[in-house]
Design a protein that fits this description.
By secondary structure, the protein is of the alpha/beta class. The chain is 37% helix and 21% strand. The chain has a domain of 178 residues: EAL domain (TIM Barrel). The structure holds guanosine-5'-monophosphate and manganese (II) ion.
């Protein structure tokens, strides 16, 4: 007798990711950014998680390599931006209209033709201004040509969307292309904050990178604030945003109200 067995994708393969997306196993957590000199929230970053049926909740590091440069990339981008539009629309209803939301997209994805007009239409349908969306370019994959990337960044900015370089200084391309890429924000890689209290040189590096970003007219975000000492030091620097476990770990959507109540919002 012939047995017919259903095809079960092996765990954490691209087929499994496709299955998980269809089954709504992917969700988002949100990590706040604090405008340090005002002590108020300026926005959140949405971070993808996979509630995997056999492996539990997974962070992007353990699955994003399956998605990037695969036929699934576009579906994930669509999922990420659709959720961002819904979340921002919900925040408007709740009166959090100054909060921005940052999403993470691989540099190669933002060059997708028509992304800017697609986002304008999507945000329009939710009556949300595109100016509340920020795209964080992650440099985990090959960004392709600088000319194409520059053009893609400009077309997003023309549609009102701001663009950040994520994990700035961690990889090889971000410093080399900084003078050519007109991004709005630099997010310093959290490794710069590691052991900063014990090393005078690390402090000089961070201060210099902040000055570099600010002299280029960019908003600077420092990631990876984990201690009271780091927090107290960064509070003395004007107009930077900070993110890290000391302020808050990434939280579920339902906990956002609590955080807004605790810190208040920037104007
Ligand atoms: O590079 P990006 O900012 O997109 O990475 C976000 C990831 O970093 C999240 O998955 C989050 O859990 C983690 N993260 C957030 N804050 C901190 C922190 O203060 N320290 C460390 N080590 N990791 C953090
Ligand atoms: Mn990020």
């Amino acid at each position: 007798m012939k047995h017919i067995t259903a095809h079960v994708p092996s765990p954490c393969s691209i087929d499994d990711a496709r299955r998980g997306l269809a089954k709504r196993e992917f969700f988002f957590v949100y990590q706040p950014k604090l405008r340090m000199d005002e002590g108020k929230l300026s926005g959140f970053e949405s971070l993808l998680r996979w509630n995997h049926p056999s492996r539990g909740v997974l962070a992007p590091a353990s699955f994003i390599h399956l998605v990037e440069d695969s036929p699934l990339t576009g579906s994930f981008t669509d999922f990420i931006v659709a959720q961002a539009a819904r979340t921002l629309a919900d925040w408007s209803v709740r009166g959090y209209s100054t909060l921005s939301l940052a999403v993470n997209l691989p540099a190669a994805e933002i060059g997708r033709p028509g992304l800017a007009s697609k986002l304008s239409a999507l945000f329009g349908s939710h009556s949300v201004s595109t100016s509340r969306l920020q795209i964080e370019l992650t440099e985990s994959t090959d960004p392709g040509s600088i000319e194409k990337l520059t053009a893609a960044v400009e077309s997003l900015q023309k549609s009102g969307i701001s663009v950040a370089i994520d994990d700035f200084g961690a990889g090889c391309w971000s410093l080399a292309i900084l003078h050519r890429l007109g991004v709005d924000t630099l997010k310093l890689d959290r490794r710069f904050m590691h052991g900063i209290q014990d090393n005078a040189n690390s402090k000089v590096v961070v201060e210099s990178l902040i000055a570099l970003g600010q002299r280029l007219g960019k908003q600077v975000v420092i990631e990876g604030i984990e201690t009271a000492e780091q927090f107290a030091w960064l509070k003395t620097i004007e107009h930077i945003d900070c993110q890290g476990y000391y302020i808050s770990a990434p939280i579920a959507e339902e906990q956002i109200g609590e955080l807004v109540a605790r810190h208040g919002l920037v104007h």
